[in-house]
Amino acid sequence: MKLTLKVWRQRDAIDKGRLATYDVEAHEDMSFLEMLDVLNEELITSGEDPVAFDHDCREGICGTCSMVIDGQPHGPQRATTTCQLHMRHYNDGDTIVIEPFRSGAFPVIKDLIVDRGAFDKVIQAGGYISANTGSAPEANANAVQKEHADRAFAAANCIGCGACVAACPNGSASLFLGAKLTHLGELPQGQPERYQRVVEMVQTHEDAGFGGCTNTGACATACPKEIPLDVISQLNRDYLAATVGGKKKG
Amino acid sequence: MTDANSHQNHSDTDSGTGLYSDYTTGEPVVDKAVPSGPIETRWERRRFGVKLVNPANKRSKKVIVVGSGLAGGAASATLGEAGYQVKTFCYQDSPRRAHSIAAQGGINAAKNYRNDGDSVYRLFYDTVKGGDFRARESNVHRLAEISRQIIDQCVAQGVPFARDYGGLLDTRSFGGVQVSRTFYARGQTGQQLLLGAYQALERQVQAGTVEMFTRHEMLELIVVEGRARGIVARDMVTGEIEVHTADAVVLCSGGYGNVFYLSTNAKGCNVTAGWRAHRKGALFANPCFTQIHPTCIPVSGDHQSKLTLMSESLRNDGRVWVPTKLGDDRGPNEIPHEERDYFLERKYPAFGNLVPRDIASRAAKEVCDEQRGVGPGGLGVYLDFDDAIQRLGRKAVEAKYGNLFEMYERITGENPYEVPMRIYPAVHYTMGGLWVDYDLQSTIPGLYVGGEANFSDHGANRLGASALMQGLADGYFVLPVTIGDYIAKHNLDDVPEDAPEVQEAVKSVTDRIDQLLSINGTRTVDSFHRELGQIMWDYCGMERSEEGLRKALDRIPELRREFWSNVKVPGTGAELNQSLEKAGRVADFLELGELMCLDALVRRESCGGHFRAESQTEDGEAQRDDENFSFTSAWEYTGRGQAPVLHQEELVFEYVHPTQRSYK
Question: What would the CATH number be for the domain defined by A116-243?
Answer without folding.
Answer: 1.10.1060.10
